[in-house]
Write a structure and sequence with these properties.
Helices cover 36% and strands 28% of the residues. It is of the alpha/beta class. The chain has a single domain, classed as P-loop containing nucleotide triphosphate hydrolases (Rossmann fold, 3-Layer(aba) Sandwich). Helix 3 packs parallel to helix 6. The relative contact order is 0.19.
């Protein structure tokens, strides 16, 4: 199992925000964590990355406990993270953003520029001057440059134009075909279901429903009912 979360609880100060969250992400799969804004999806990803401490419960990556590790150590062992806020280095160029993240593996800068031609054309431009969609592409490309075994993506389509959402959907589908393991947090159900192997619904800091991506694509009504709660 690539990732296993068991009875994870997390807090922001006195506010209890995750309640006994448990799920697994098998190697080579895409698991979609869906739900409305504020239900705990982003906090779940931040807790996996060590940005929010797990107050109890365990998180294992490839059998190794990581819930007490610092975020930079979690990144080093093979987990890539694309935050909702993108957080590109605004004063650095696209090429410099990729250079600081690059590690040995199949996702070299040369390949990234082949897969992201829009970034290739603008490689000398400062990231702070890019559009929202371009920054999102750069955030994903920068994470891929670390050659992660597990890729976490938080609300990758938030606030983007439909044409950019379509490009991101194609990218995620391509990653899935290549066997990249992904955990995706999203409000956009149609985007999440495009390639999901498993769908988890979150509500009030808990995983309240689980189904396969195939079942959800065949009949979205049970999923929609639980999202409306």
């Amino acid at each position: 199992m690539m990732l296993r979360c068991e009875n994870v609880n997390a807090r922001y100060g006195p506010a209890h925000v995750l309640f006994d969250v448990s799920f697994e992400v098998p190697e080579g799969s895409l698991v979609a964590l869906v739900g409305r804004n504020g239900v705990g999806k982003s906090t779940t990803l931040k807790t996996i990355m060590g940005l929010v401490p797990a107050r109890s419960g365990t998180i294992h990556f490839e059998g190794r406990p990581i819930h007490r590790l610092e975020p930079f150590r979690i990144a080093r062992i093979g987990i890539g993270y694309v935050p909702e806020e993108r957080r590109v280095f605004s004063d650095l160029s696209i090429d410099e953003n990729l250079e600081v993240a690059e590690r040995p593996g199949p996702w070299s800068r040369q390949r990234i520029y082949r897969e992201f031609p829009a970034l290739a054309e603008l490689r000398a431009r400062r990231a702070g001057l890019l559009s929202g969609g371009q920054q999102q592409m750069l955030a994903i490309a920068r994470s891929l440059a670390t050659n992660p075994r597990l890729l976490l993506m938080d609300e990758p389509t938030e606030g983007l134009a439909p044409v950019i959402v379509g490009a991101l959907r194609s990218l995620v589908q391509a990653l899935r075909r290549e066997g990249q393991t992904c955990l995706l947090a999203a409000q956009d159900l149609h985007f999440a279901l495009a390639t999901a192997d498993q769908v988890l619904v979150m509500n009030k800091g808990q995983v309240t429903y689980r189904t396969s991506g195939e079942a959800a694509r065949a009949d979205m009504s049970p999923l929609a009912e639980r999202l409306a709660v």
